[in-house]
Design brief:
81 residues; mainly alpha
């Protein structure tokens, strides 16, 4: 009788371990999906920030050119006055 009881408890323990592994795999799959979504969002944000940075750099260059042109005009006016 002990062999039968040991066999049943062994099968029950194995089934419990399998169930725990299945639950853990499901949790890991959910974590992977969450991380994939976060990664996608972060990449999109990075692209957006890079585009914004590029626009600011271009605007900065335009402003710098305008200021330099104004300084040049002021120096010209100073020399002619």
């Amino acid at each position: 009788m002990n062999d039968t009881n040991d066999n049943k408890s062994g099968k029950s323990g194995f089934a419990t371990e399998i169930a725990l592994l299945e639950r853990r795999v499901e949790e890991l799959l959910i974590a992977v999906d969450t991380l994939k979504e976060e990664n996608r969002a972060l990449r999109q944000r990075q692209e957006s920030l890079a585009a914004e940075r590029s626009a600011f750099a271009q605007r900065n260059d335009q402003v710098r050119a305008r200021v330099e042109a104004m300084i040049g005009r002021l120096k010209t006016m100073e020399h002619t006055a």
